[in-house]
């Protein structure tokens, strides 16, 4: 069961909302219904948020994202459609039931913190529990725990005015955490902070999320923030959903020009990870093979390098063509002295973090999983191609595709040699480990 | 020759007579209600003004008891304190109703009380005083047994001691009550507003006493305090409602304008019709004249509270009254206090007009001055009003500093 579900949700401000909903449901754009003297803030929005997920709603100002988040906890009444929290349709709840639901299931973090200036940090953090009627001693213990979680122990007795912006928002976060609700709504929670602190807060939120596993609906206008935090992202435009998907899907496969325009300025190197840009791990050779076989494999694949992997695909290292050719000339029988160490990255490493390693090594980067098995390789050219936006990169993309095709042609040959050498590559399709790889090549 | 007249006949609308008819009707049908209101207000004003002019030993004792009880409540010893006060109240009512305590006292041996009665110069044992002393003793006992806090022990010693000093000063040494009350008010000024205001009030009150206006000043003060209390009690809820509801706000606004602009003398007319000559019409007229800023500033203060804070309360599921009490009112308190301050200032300006309808006090002095061309009397009355005004203004202004919002602001500055 999804933690939050919105179905065909509409919010129309004005006197004749139902008529406007009918027109909008027919697909009329928002501008055409201005004659009705209504403002359509949210139009036909449907999505599901799974428990433990960070769901980011992203849009420019006026896209209806703040209205949307306020409908998820009933602060704003809906015009039509349904909102379900844990399977309960909140649009049908009465006032007091709605209050109960808010205090027990959904807490909120605000853009401008919304801390009560006349209460101490501790009392602020304990507010959610105070509303729920938890006795003082108990709620203060929980509030202290929440404050410690966000790194504010020792500040309990200050008032919010004595804290910096970042610290104030930590109190706001602690208030939501102390309320101990499954769902946290965050309305542009970090937008009022300066960039460095914003980044710290994002990191802290991700760390907390890793241990707490809350369901978070996060509103932002900052695409980089959305890409960084969101397990999935919903792009809103003029009140309608433009696209919902994972960060990489949106980046590599924008649903329309609007989204494409939007993502132009995104720092792609921070969003794309090794797994989304890596290529098939070819060529590889077995440590048992001699330099002569290794040289043939490299020539067949037209590369100057080959990775050395064991039968269980664990990476041993990398060999270069020149060294191998020399060894063949000197009639060396064993590879062992020739294997150099490869620069390794994990599938989750951001592209931005790979440049230094790529510069230090003359070979491609090896992408290895937790068990040190080789799952992909990233040549420098691929790394650079990943920086190009899908539109701008048409030409290079075509080249890349051609390359891939030729590589695939040869892979059949390679597969033969692999089966000859006894290595089992049946599970080595990069698609298994990196579902987005195909998208990145498009 | 005949001239054609272009005069358009405008019918006479009987506004005045209708008003009179309405008043008559109200007086007949709601007579009991007005009598009740009159009784309450009258009682309050008389009690307060006797307290300010000729406070009895009982009142001093109760004052000391109130301070000790306040300390106990501040340290969260609610239950024993409330029990003691409730027992006292029960006995007090029983005494008033049936003379129960007097009956008990007369059965007790006289030497038990004689020393105290001699001290206070009383010819007989005055039961309420005995009750008040017992209450004070009980509260002091509670302070030393139940309360562990040192400050409370100090409180429990200091106030009975002050009481003793005051009683000795008056009943044994023979210092006038006016000086003692002036000193107490000055101490209050020091506690709330600091040295400057304290010194001003000492000098000001001495001037009033020397002008022989003390009793009038105190009866005016009592009238103002009662009028302020009534105005605050009425205007706060209206202001809160107006802040919450746009329709109430639009409905209330013209009424407030009307109340403020209608010449004060005009609503003395119905006030006299309902309550006849005396203090009560003065209080009622004052309340009506002074109320509008209370309503307006309460509404403004609550509307000024950051919307996001109210939304935060709602987002955590707080009911409306809780948002009002814990978020809106504390944050609006400074503005609301400014409204109360305005109420007090406007009440003061009504003192003279209230004097005209026989409310007594300083207004009477001024009115006499005008009516008889007696410049000294009128001027002295006026000066006394100004001193009272400054005293009350500084006091209420200083109270704002104790609001939680102001305290937080100071802490963060």
TrEMBL record, chain A:
Region (Disordered): 389-442
Keywords: Amino-acid transport, ATP-binding, CBS domain, Nucleotide-binding, Transport
Pfam families named in the record: ABC_tran, CBS
InterPro entries cross-referenced by the UniProt entry: AAA+_ATPase, ABC_osmolyte_uptake_ATP-bind, ABC_transporter-like_ATP-bd, ABC_transporter-like_CS, CBS_dom, CBS_dom_sf, Gly-betaine_transp_ATP-bd, P-loop_NTPase
Residue ranges occupied by any ABC transporter domain in the UniProt entry: 4-263
Ranges annotated as biased composition (Acidic residues): 392-409
Superkingdom of origin: Bacteria
Signal sequence interval, chain numbering: none
GO molecular function terms listed in the Swiss-Prot or TrEMBL record: ATP binding
Domain CBS: 278-335
NCBIfam families membership: proV
Family: Belongs to the ABC transporter superfamily.
Name of this protein: Glycine betaine/L-proline ABC transporter ATP-binding protein
Automatic annotation (TrEMBL), chain B:
Recorded topology in the membrane: Multi-pass membrane protein
Compartment(s): Cell membrane; Membrane
Keywords noted in UniProt: Cell membrane, Membrane, Transmembrane, Transmembrane helix, Transport
CDD domains, per the entry: TM_PBP2
UniProt xrefs under PROSITE patterns: ABC_TM1
Domain ABC transmembrane type-1: 217-396
Gene3D superfamilies xrefs: MetI-like
InterPro entries listed in its UniProt record: MetI-like, MetI-like_sf
Positions of transmembrane segments: 57-75, 82-105, 125-147, 154-173, 179-209, 221-244, 264-290, 331-355, 375-392
Top-level taxon of the source organism: Bacteria
Record-stated family: Belongs to the binding-protein-dependent transport system permease family.
PANTHER family: GLYCINE BETAINE/PROLINE BETAINE TRANSPORT SYSTEM PERMEASE PROTEIN PROW, GLYCINE BETAINE_PROLINE BETAINE TRANSPORT SYSTEM PERMEASE PROTEIN PROW
Protein's name in the database: ABC transporter permease subunit
Source organism of the structure: Streptomonospora wellingtoniae
């Amino acid at each position: 069961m999804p933690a939050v579900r919105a179905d065909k949700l509409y919010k129309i401000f004005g006197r004749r909302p139902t008529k406007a909903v009918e027109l909008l449901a027919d697909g009329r754009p928002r501008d055409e219904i201005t004659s009705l003297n209504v403002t359509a803030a949210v139009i036909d929005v449907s999505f599901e948020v799974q428990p433990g997920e960070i769901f980011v709603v992203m849009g420019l100002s006026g896209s209806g994202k703040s209205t949307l988040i306020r409908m998820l906890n009933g602060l704003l009444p809906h015009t039509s459609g349904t909102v379900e929290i844990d399977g309960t349709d909140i649009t049908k709840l009465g006032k007091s039931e709605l209050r109960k639901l808010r205090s027990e299931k959904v807490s909120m973090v605000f853009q401008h913190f919304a801390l009560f200036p006349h209460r101490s940090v501790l009392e602020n953090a304990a507010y959610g529990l105070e509303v729920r009627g938890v006795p003082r001693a108990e709620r203060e213990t929980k509030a202290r725990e929440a404050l410690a979680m966000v790194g504010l122990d020792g500040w309990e007795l200050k008032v919010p005015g004595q804290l910096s912006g970042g610290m104030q928002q930590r109190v706001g976060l602690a208030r939501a955490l102390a309320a101990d609700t499954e769902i946290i709504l965050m309305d542009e929670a970090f937008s009022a902070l300066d960039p460095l602190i914003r980044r710290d807060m994002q990191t802290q939120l991700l760390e907390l999320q890793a241990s707490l596993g809350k369901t978070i609906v996060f509103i932002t206008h900052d695409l980089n923030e959305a890409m960084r935090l969101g397990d999935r992202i919903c792009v809103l435009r003029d009140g309608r959903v433009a696209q919902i998907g994972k960060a990489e899907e949106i980046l590599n496969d924008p649903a329309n020009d609007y989204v494409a325009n939007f993502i132009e300025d995104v720092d792609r190197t921070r969003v794309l990870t090794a797994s989304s840009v890596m290529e098939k791990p070819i060529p590889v050779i077995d440590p048992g093979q001699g330099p002569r076989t290794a040289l043939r494999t490299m020539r067949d694949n037209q590369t100057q390098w080959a990775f050395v992997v064991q039968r269980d695909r664990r990476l041993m290292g990398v060999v270069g063509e020149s060294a191998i050719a020399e060894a063949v000339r000197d009639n060396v029988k064993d590879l062992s002295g020739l294997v150099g160490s490869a620069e390794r990255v994990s599938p989750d490493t951001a592209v931005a973090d790979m440049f230094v390693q790529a510069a230090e090594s003359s070979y491609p980067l090896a992408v290895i999983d937790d068990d040190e098995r080789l799952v992909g390789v990233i040549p420098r050219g691929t790394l650079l191609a990943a920086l190009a936006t899908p539109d701008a990169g048409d030409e290079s993309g075509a080249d890349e595709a051609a390359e891939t095709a030729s590589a695939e042609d040869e892979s059949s040959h390679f597969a033969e040699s692999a089966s000859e050498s006894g290595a089992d590559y049946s599970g080595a399709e990069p698609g298994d480990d990196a579902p987005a790889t195909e998208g990145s090549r498009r | 020759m005949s001239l054609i007249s272009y005069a358009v006949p405008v019918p006479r609308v009987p506004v005045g007579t209708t008003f009179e008819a309405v008043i008559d009707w109200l007086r007949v049908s709601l007579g009991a209600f007005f009598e009740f209101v009159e009784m309450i207000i009258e009682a309050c004003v008389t009690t307060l003004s006797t307290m300010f002019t000729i406070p009895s030993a009982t009142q001093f004792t109760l004052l000391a008891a109130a301070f000790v009880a306040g300390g106990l409540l501040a340290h969260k010893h609610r239950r024993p304190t409330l029990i003691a006060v409730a027992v006292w109240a029960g006995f007090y009512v029983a005494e008033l109703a049936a003379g129960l305590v007097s009956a008990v006292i007369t059965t007790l041996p006289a030497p038990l009380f004689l020393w105290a009665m001699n001290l206070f110069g009383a010819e007989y044992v005055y039961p309420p005083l005995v009750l008040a002393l017992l209450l004070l003793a009980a509260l002091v006992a509670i302070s030393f047994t139940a309360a562990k806090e040192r400050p409370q022990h100090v409180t429990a010693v200091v106030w009975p001691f002050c009481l003793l000093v005051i009683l000795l000063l008056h009943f044994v040494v023979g210092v006038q009550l006016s000086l003692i009350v002036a000193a107490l008010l000055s101490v209050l000024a020091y506690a709330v507003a600091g040295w400057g205001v304290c010194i001003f009030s000492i000098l000001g009150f001495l001037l009033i006493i020397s002008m022989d206006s003390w009793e009038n000043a105190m009866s005016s003060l009592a009238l103002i305090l009662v009028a302020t209390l009534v105005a605050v009690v009425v205007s706060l809820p209206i202001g809160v409602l107006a802040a919450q509801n746009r329709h109430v706000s639009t409905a209330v606004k013209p009424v407030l304008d009307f109340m403020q602009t209608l010449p004060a003398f005009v609503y003395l007319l119905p006030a006299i019709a309902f309550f006849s000559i005396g203090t009560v019409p003065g209080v009622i007229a004052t309340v009506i004249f002074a109320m509008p800023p209370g309503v307006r500033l309460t509404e403004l203060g609550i509307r000024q509270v950051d919307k996001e804070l109210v939304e935060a309360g709602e987002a955590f599921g707080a009911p409306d009254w809780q948002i009002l009490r814990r978020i809106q009112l504390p944050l609006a308190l400074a503005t609301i206090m400014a409204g109360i301050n305005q109420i007090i200032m406007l009440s003061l300006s009504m003192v003279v007009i209230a004097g005209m309808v026989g409310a007594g006090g300083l207004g009477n002095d001024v009115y006499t001055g005008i009516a008889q061309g007696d410049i000294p009397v009128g001027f002295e009355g006026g000066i006394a009003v100004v001193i009272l005004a400054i005293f009350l203004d500084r006091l209420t202004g200083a109270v704002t500093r104790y609001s939680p919002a102001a305290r937080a602001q100071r802490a963060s500055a």
